[in-house]
């Protein structure tokens, strides 16, 4: 064993770690390639066969080397598409699998253990829900079980499980103290991120396409407000500003992107003038694979950490320094009453007046007519909105496709669509009229989960228009609000309910549910929110808040005291765990009862037993005791003698009965002696 | 120079250890005798933790940080778990049997639970101090004995070196160890060297007539059994017939007992001692009475196993004066 070699057949620890690595790799379904998972499963099979002794010899080193070369070639080939992070994870799992096949030394096992720990950590990159967290902590338990099996192979497995569970339980208060106390730093350096599946709003909006986004009921983010919560119609959560329009598709302007990168390089920050009235809130965004963050205009990152990690762009977007690969919490302060001044009027005018030369003749002539009637910008916009209101426009999630001459078809023929149709058409119309306009996508509304908490789902996605009416800056216009006011005031569900379209969409199946089912789903949503906010979203700022709550105000002295206090708390915990308790449990109950009876008798009669044999002491005590007390003490003594010296082979049951009898006798004895005095 | 420093250092360590863990055949492990330090694996574990911390910080992933905190807590707890488990041991050494030179003495150690009812778990490894050969015993397999072979190159009385015991239970993050001096010494007899048996008789003062011993097992007579005589001398046939206990006497017993004498001065002392050793064994096999003279020290004639060991011990201790019992 110490020579470094491990037994092969029947070695539980190796089998456990093989099972564990397979389970972990199955849980990493997203980053792993299929052949890697298959390789892991094959490894598991090899280990099981070795464990059961189906064959004795592990595959030899040459085979493994060949496999390793092949796998690394394959990995190198696929890594071009996979990106750094995924390649690394695949590499780690492949290495683990190959190591598992050759596992024969102590070192191998311990290395695998460390890799297992790392894989659990990697799992948290992709899954952070409560259930996945529970799953990964269960795997941690199992991993530790493998380790303890390695160090005490003959220990009964129940005992091993007990030891490990006990340790994990005892470690959890320490972990919680450390979690609350240890500084939550910002990222030390930029980590490779994956080109994983991106969800949510896309960077390109083509209104003629099908409305696939609104049919998802995935959570996008939770917003927890500190003070006042804005009303639904004010909750326009901006995500992206789309300024490039080619007649069909709106997307982020490449010029804008270039300016932003240049500004970021020289750290030329944008600080708009802000009014005092503001909302403070924390947003916990789900993973989206994109850097865009969500906030109500005009949003400013609230803490210094957030300021370092979030870039406020000049088109009022908040951009994270890396895509949201996992849940992410950030703190924002919004100034809803501030106008959105244009940071560079000429440039923005130029960008937002570009329209394609061809197509949509009917729209062009209609705009020319309208413009001649309303030369004033404000009046023109009101006229356009009035057009949406007066003509029979319908709000629907399943409009007919409008691929050619979108504006013409939409404005004059079909007149049916959802937010991005209206926003696109309106922005196009405004541009034709010489008013700089752009499309903004994001979310609108959101459900109230709790008093101060808003949850926003994918079906809350929305698009609206911003235009420069006067030189003051950008003003928001929402044509959808004209067509379907209930979309803004009551949400998509109610709108669809009103139009009778609701039944088509299964995602709202829980809408209108009553009773227990609704309660449960609500409870689950609350639990999820709690988890997101207090575990996943616990950051520097919340830590500061916690410290302030505990200490009043944060001074160096206070902090020192807090740290010392935590150290003391941990030491107390350890003392509680480990200082041997002189519990009476270690003495067997029979002796305990007898000793109790003896001490009762001693204190009543004044005779000490010292080291007398029980029967001798009984004989001595008898002279001083009243008859009833004497009777009981005699029974106790005889029981004790019988248990201690005679009955070696009595069954547990009879012994238990004897103990009960002794206890009863001792209690009666106590009463009798009390009466005696 | 370097070896000198090492020597001084070793001496100091020895001195310190003998003060800290005094010699005793039975020892309970406690705070004074247990040393504990993270193993290489424990350090690797910490490095893995650090990796998780960096990963968690860079991805702003609180669950990873929580995992890190958990593992850190576990690491801390294990310090105590390892210690407590090891401190439940009580070590008892069995008296060690004498051996011939070039043979292996074997020290048997009993690993008993400490006073309370809780017993230690896991694998206990034992070896001689500063020796890499390690023997393991799994306490959970209900084995409590451990034999440590000790190679004995030369004749003499050797105190056994310290025994190092270590355990990495439960998670191998820490190693608890101790260097125990179990206060055992091994008597190493000279290796027997084949030669002719030479008994010398003290016929008169100064005269040393040497004769081959012959006919020593010729039956001579029966005489009444005396308390303490070896049982194989009893004439069982006559006892079985219902007679009194009688013992057989042999012809040579009538003659004066011979002495094995170390020829002094001699050229090769060790060789002579080895020869004496061989003769003692042979004579004991033949159940003869003999004495031993080693320079000034004289062992009066006797016979039997105990006498043999007495004589062999004298050989082992030579030229020490004091004779063993």
UniProtKB/TrEMBL annotation, chain A:
Is the keyword Transmembrane in the record?
yes
The record's Pfam families line, in alphabetical order, gives: TgpA_N, Transglut_core
Q: Which PANTHER family match?
A: PROTEIN-GLUTAMINE GAMMA-GLUTAMYLTRANSFERASE
Transglutaminase-like domain spans which residues?
411-481
Q: Which SMART domains match?
A: TGc
Protein source organism: Alteromonas ponticola
Q: Where are the transmembrane segments?
A: 6-26, 33-54, 74-97, 109-127, 133-151, 163-182, 559-579
Keyword list, A-Z: Membrane, Transmembrane, Transmembrane helix
User: What protein does this entry describe?
Assistant: DUF3488 domain-containing protein
Automatic annotation (TrEMBL), chain B:
Q: Where are the transmembrane segments?
A: 34-57, 63-84
Q: What keyword terms does UniProt attach to this protein?
A: Membrane, Transmembrane, Transmembrane helix
Q: Which PANTHER family match?
A: SLR1927 PROTEIN, SLR1927 PROTEIN-RELATED
Protein name, as recorded? DUF58 domain-containing protein
The species this protein belongs to is: Alteromonas ponticola
């Amino acid at each position: 064993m110490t020579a470094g070699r491990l037994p092969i057949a029947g070695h539980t620890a190796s089998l456990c770690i093989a099972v564990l690595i397979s389970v972990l790799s199955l849980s990493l379904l997203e980053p792993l390639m299929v052949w890697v998972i298959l390789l892991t499963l094959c490894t598991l099979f090899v280990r099981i066969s070795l464990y059961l002794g189906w064959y004795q010899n592990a595959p030899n080193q040459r085979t493994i080397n060949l496999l390793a070369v092949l796998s690394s070639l394959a990995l190198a080939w696929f890594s071009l598409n996979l990106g750094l992070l995924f390649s690394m994870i695949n590499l780690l799992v492949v290495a683990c699998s190959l190591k598992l096949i050759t596992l024969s030394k102590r070192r191998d096992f311990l290395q695998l253990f460390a890799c297992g720990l790392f894989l659990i950590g990697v799992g948290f990159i992709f899954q952070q829900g409560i259930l996945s967290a529970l799953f990964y902590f269960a795997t941690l338990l199992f991993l530790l079980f493998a380790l303890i099996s390695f160090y005490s192979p003959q220990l009964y497995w129940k005992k091993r499980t007990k030891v490990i569970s006990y340790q994990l339980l005892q470690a959890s208060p320490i972990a919680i103290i450390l979690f609350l106390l240890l500084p939550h730093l910002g990222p030390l350096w930029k980590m490779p991120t994956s080109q994983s599946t991106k969800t949510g709003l896309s960077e390109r909006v083509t209104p003629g396409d099908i409305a696939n986004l609104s049919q998802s009921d995935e959570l996008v983010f939770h917003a927890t407000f500190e003070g006042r919560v804005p009303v639904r119609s004010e909750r326009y959560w901006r995500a992206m500003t789309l300024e490039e329009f080619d007649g069909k598709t709106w997307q982020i302007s490449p010029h804008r992107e270039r300016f932003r990168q240049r500004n970021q390089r020289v750290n030329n920050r944008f600080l708009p003038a802000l009014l005092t009235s503001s909302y403070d809130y924390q947003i916990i965004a789900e993973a989206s694979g994109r850097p865009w963050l969500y906030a109500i205009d005009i949003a400013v990152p609230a803490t210094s950490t957030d300021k370092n990690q979030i870039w406020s762009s000049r088109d009022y977007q908040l951009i994270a320094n890396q895509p949201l690969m996992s849940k992410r919490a950030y703190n924002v302060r919004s100034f809803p009453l501030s106008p959105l001044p244009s940071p560079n009027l000429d440039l923005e005018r130029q960008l937002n007046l570009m329209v394609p030369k061809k197509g949509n003749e009917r729209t062009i002539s209609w705009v020319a007519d309208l413009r001649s009637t309303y030369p004033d910008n404000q009046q023109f916009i009101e006229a356009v909105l009035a057009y949406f209101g007066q003509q029979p426009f319908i709000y629907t999630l399943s409009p007919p496709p409008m691929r050619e001459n979108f504006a013409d078809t939409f404005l004059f023929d079909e007149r049916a669509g959802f937010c991005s149709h209206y926003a696109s058409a309106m922005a196009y119309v405004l541009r034709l009229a010489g008013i700089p306009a752009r499309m903004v996508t994001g979310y609108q509304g959101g459900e109230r989960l709790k008093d101060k908490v808003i949850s926003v789902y994918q079906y809350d996605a929305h698009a609206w228009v911003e235009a420069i009416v006067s030189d003051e800056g950008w003003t928001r216009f929402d044509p959808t609000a004209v067509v379907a006011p209930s979309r803004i005031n009551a949400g998509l569900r109610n709108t669809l309910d009103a139009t009778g379209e609701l039944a088509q969409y299964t995602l709202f199946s829980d809408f209108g549910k009553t009773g227990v089912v609704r309660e449960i789903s609500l409870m689950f949503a609350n639990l999820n929110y709690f988890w997101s906010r207090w575990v996943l979203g616990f950051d520097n700022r919340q830590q500061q808040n916690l410290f302030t709550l505990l200490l009043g105000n944060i001074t160096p002295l206070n902090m020192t005291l807090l740290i010392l206090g935590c150290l003391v708390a941990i030491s107390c915990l350890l003392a509680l765990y480990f200082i041997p308790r002189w519990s009476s449990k270690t003495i067997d109950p029979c002796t305990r009862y007898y000793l109790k009876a003896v001490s009762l008798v001693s204190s009543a009669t004044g005779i000490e037993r010292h080291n007398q044999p029980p029967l001798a002491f009984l004989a001595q005590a008898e002279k001083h005791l009243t008859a009833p007390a004497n009777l009981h003490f005699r029974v106790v003594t005889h029981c004790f003698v019988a248990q201690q010296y005679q009955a070696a082979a009595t069954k547990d049951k009879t012994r238990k009965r004897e103990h009960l009898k002794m206890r009863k006798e001792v209690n009666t004895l106590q009463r009798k002696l009390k009466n005696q005095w | 120079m370097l070896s000198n420093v090492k020597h001084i250092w070793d001496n100091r360590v020895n001195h310190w250890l003998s003060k800290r863990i005094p010699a005793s055949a039975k020892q309970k492990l406690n705070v004074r005798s247990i040393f504990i330090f993270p193993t290489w694996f424990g350090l690797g574990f910490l490095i893995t933790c650090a990796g998780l911390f960096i990963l968690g910080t860079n991805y702003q992933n609180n669950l990873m940080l929580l995992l890190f905190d958990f593992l850190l807590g576990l690491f801390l707890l294990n310090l105590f778990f390892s210690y407590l488990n090891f401190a439940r041991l009580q070590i008892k050494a069995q008296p060690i049997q004498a051996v011939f030179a070039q043979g292996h003495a074997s020290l048997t150690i009993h690993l008993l639970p400490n006073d309370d009812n809780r017993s230690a778990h896991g694998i206990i490894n034992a070896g001689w101090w500063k020796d890499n050969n390690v023997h393991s015993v799994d306490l959970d397999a209900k084995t409590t004995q451990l034999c440590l072979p000790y190679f004995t190159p030369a004749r003499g009385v050797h105190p056994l070196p310290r025994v190092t015991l270590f355990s990495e239970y439960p998670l191998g993050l820490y190693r608890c160890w101790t260097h125990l001096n179990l206060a055992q010494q091994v008597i190493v007899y000279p290796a027997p060297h084949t030669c002719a048996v030479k008994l010398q008789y003290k016929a008169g003062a100064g005269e040393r007539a040497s004769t081959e011993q012959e006919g020593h097992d010729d039956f001579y007579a029966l005489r009444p059994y005396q308390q303490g005589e070896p049982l194989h001398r009893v004439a069982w046939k006559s006892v079985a017939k219902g007679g009194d206990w009688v013992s057989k006497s042999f012809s040579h017993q009538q003659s004066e007992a011979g002495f094995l004498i170390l020829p002094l001065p001699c050229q090769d002392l060790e060789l002579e001692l080895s020869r004496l050793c061989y003769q003692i064994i042979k004579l004991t096999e033949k159940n003869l009475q003999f004495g031993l003279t080693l320079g000034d020290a004289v062992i009066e004639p006797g016979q039997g196993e105990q006498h043999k060991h007495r004589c062999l011990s004298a050989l082992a201790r030579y030229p020490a004066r004091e004779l063993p019992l």
